[in-house]
Write a structure and sequence with these properties.
118 residues; alpha+beta; three-stranded mixed beta sheet
C-alpha cells in the first residue's frame, strides 16, 4: 500500500544525493581559489554569537537571529589583518545533535569547509 511513497522517497533521496555531490564539487573548486589565504572558522552553539562575532570582525551586516538553521551554508567574509594582508572568516552552522543521517549528510559540505580552516 505504501510502495508509491517508498518509490517517491527513493527518487527524492537519489536527487538529494546528486545535489550534495554537485555542491561538494563546487565548494572544492571555490576552496582551490583561496589556497594560501588563511581561513578562520567560527564554530559554536548559537547562531547569534557566531554571526555577531563575524559582523564585528569583518564589518558585515549579517542577520543575527537565534534560530535553528539560520545559517545553513557557510558564510565567508574577508578580514583585513593588522599586517596589511587578509584572511577569510567562515561563519558556519551551529552544533547539531541527533539529526537523521540523510539530514546530517546535507551539511557535509559545510563541515568540510570548516575542516579546511586554519
Amino acid at each position: 500500500p505504501f510502495e508509491t511513497e517508498r518509490k517517491l522517497l527513493r527518487v527524492l533521496e537519489k536527487r538529494l544525493k546528486r545535489h550534495i555531490e554537485k555542491e561538494r564539487r563546487n565548494k572544492t573548486t571555490q576552496r582551490s581559489g583561496r589556497l594560501g589565504v588563511p581561513t578562520i572558522g567560527i564554530v559554536g552553539y548559537t547562531n547569534v554569537g557566531k554571526t555577531t562575532l563575524m559582523n564585528a570582525l569583518t564589518g558585515s551586516d549579517l542577520k543575527e537571529k537565534d534560530l535553528l538553521f539560520q545559517t545553513l551554508d557557510t558564510t565567508l567574509r574577508r578580514l583585513k589583518l593588522p599586517s596589511g594582508g587578509h584572511a577569510i572568516v567562515a561563519d558556519s552552522i551551529g552544533f547539531i545533535q541527533q539529526l537523521p543521517n540523510l539530514v546530517a549528510t546535507s551539511f557535509t559540505t559545510t563541515l568540510e569547509e570548516l575542516a579546511q580552516c586554519d
